[in-house]
Design goal:
Organism: Starkeya nomas
Pfam families: DUF4147, MOFRL
CATH topology of the largest domain: glycerate kinase, domain 1
Number of helices: 16
Largest sheet: 6 strands, parallel
Strand content: 15-25%
Oligomer: single chain
Protein name: Hydroxypyruvate reductase
CATH superfamily of the largest domain: MOFRL domain
Strand order of the largest sheet: 3-2-1-4-5-6
Number of domains: 2
CATH architecture of the largest domain: 3-Layer(aba) Sandwich
Order of helices and strands: HHEHEEHEHHHHEHHEHEHEHEEHHHEE
Number of strands: 12
Keywords: Oxidoreductase, Pyruvate
CATH class of the largest domain: Alpha Beta
Domain MOFRL: 314-422
Distance between the termini: 9 Å
Length: 430
């Protein structure tokens, strides 16, 4: 392959992975029948909230002819991820750091859930990003305190399970509390997974499922990463009233949870496309975790092994990598992975890669125009040297965006309105 055709092939893999998880593809077959008598209350949150709400509204109003007077709801998505709706309110809010718009949107969702009766169906449309978009601090905790804690957790290197363990014990909506509030209505949750292992208690911080984690575990996370929380948060994490409802709680007796898209589904689509192109797919896992630069080094070694064996293959992997911030630069886990991969490959011929977040943005300042990731080509380091860019220095400063930007190697698909986490493909061309 040429550099151009290899990059185009990687683009097709990424696009196929995203399309397999888009609500237009995966949501309609899972939508439940509307209630016979009461209201249908749609509550959507996360990066796919806009597209999920758009698809659901069309299904019920246009395809089923459901009475619009019996339809209520609200969606809260990341800024730039909203979609046009005709009847239901669409709110754009902060991510990964929550903001006042998310606070107001979450309160409206809570109010609608609290108003539900036994005749109503509460349909929760959940996707990754909901933890930040639905922000309802526990009693005594201010929004600014939650924002400060979120920033500290994101910089610490804690994984998503650990971060959400803390979040669930500082919230009035997460950790099963939304389902408890919606009683006695039936609650159905349709979820797009963005977490390794597809654990419903972790996706969006599990607002409609039992929470097996505890206040003590939340405190342990902060201690493990040496995070000194604001005083109000320290108090809240010692208040028994903030313990979340556990498995077996009666609050979940009338609740159903269905995963409609998983990272694994996206990799099935990518594998199919690779085989059709005559490239052997090698799936390393859809649920990888760990430091981005360490995973990159290991995958660079694997790619070089395949190259030495004369293989034409593509290494595929997903999950959610982390970055422990030591510098002051710009970038997220996928861009840092790509930079570390370029360094480890050291210009090896015939090896190309793309790493991107399937939601369309990776790290950055929370703007919808932030890059999703980056490409690595055999001449990446040579072009960087010609431009006076020292990859080791950028890596040390966690400044992967500034490294790839002048090279024209950032992945910029824009908001995809779905989210099944990281997608990485390392192409080894014989």
């Amino acid at each position: 392959m040429t550099d151009v055709s290899a990059r185009a092939f990687l683009d097709r893999l990424f696009t196929a992975a995203v399309a397999a998880a888009h609500p237009a593809t995966c949501l309609p077959p899972a939508l439940p029948p509307p209630p016979a008598r009461g209201r249908l209350i749609l509550l959507a949150a996360g990066k796919a909230a806009g597209s999920m709400l758009e698809v659901a509204e069309k299904h019920y109003l246009d395809e089923l002819g459901f009475d619009p007077e019996r339809l209520a709801g609200i969606g809260v998505a990341r800024h730039g991820y909203g979609r046009p709706t005709r009847q239901l309110e669409m709110v754009e809010a902060g991510h990964p750091v929550p903001d006042a718009a998310g606070l107001a949107g979450a309160q409206k969702a809570l109010d609608l859930a609290a108003s539900a009766t036994a005749d109503d169906l509460v349909l929760v449309l959940l996707s990754g990003g909901a933890s930040a978009n639905w922000i309802a601090p526990a009693l005594g905790v201010e929004l600014d305190d939650k924002r400060a804690l979120t920033r500290a957790l994101l910089r610490s290197g804690a994984n998503i399970t650990e971060i959400n363990t803390v979040r669930k014990h500082l919230s009035r909506i997460k950790g099963g509390r939304l389902a408890a509030l919606a009683q006695p209505a039936k609650v159905v949750t349709l979820s797009i997974s963005d977490v390794p292992g597809d654990d419903p208690a972790v996706i969006g911080s599990g607002p409609t499922v039992p929470d097996p984690t505890t206040l003590a575990e939340a405190r342990d996370v902060l201690a493990r990463y040496r995070i000194d929380p604001p005083p109000s948060i320290a108090v809240a994490l010692r208040d028994p009233a903030n313990e979340s409802p556990k498995p077996g709680d009666a609050a979940f007796a009338n609740s159903e949870y269905i995963l409609i898209a998983r990272p694994a589904d996206s990799f099935v689509a990518a594998e199919k496309l690779a085989r059709e192109a005559g490239v052997e797919p090698v799936l390393l896992g859809d649920n990888l975790e760990g430091e981005a630069r360490e995973v990159a080094a290991a995958q660079a070694a694997k790619a070089q092994e395949l190259k030495a064996a004369g293989k034409k293959a593509v290494l595929l992997s997903g999950g959610e990598l982390t970055v422990t911030m030591r510098g002051q630069g710009r970038g997220g886990p996928n861009q840092e992975y790509a930079l570390a991969l370029a360094v480890a490959l050291a210009g090896a011929p015939g090896i190309y890669a793309v790493a991107g977040d399937t939601d369309g943005t990776d790290g950055g300042g929370g703007d919808a125009s932030d890059p999703a990731g980056a490409y690595v080509l055999p001449d990446t380091l040579a072009r960087a040297k010609a431009a006076g860019l020292d990859p080791a220095a950028f890596l040390a400063n966690n400044d992967s965006t500034s490294f790839f930007e002048p090279l024209g190697d950032l992945l910029n698909p824009g908001p995809t309105c779905t989210n099944v986490n990281d997608f990485r493909a390392v192409l080894v061309d014989e």
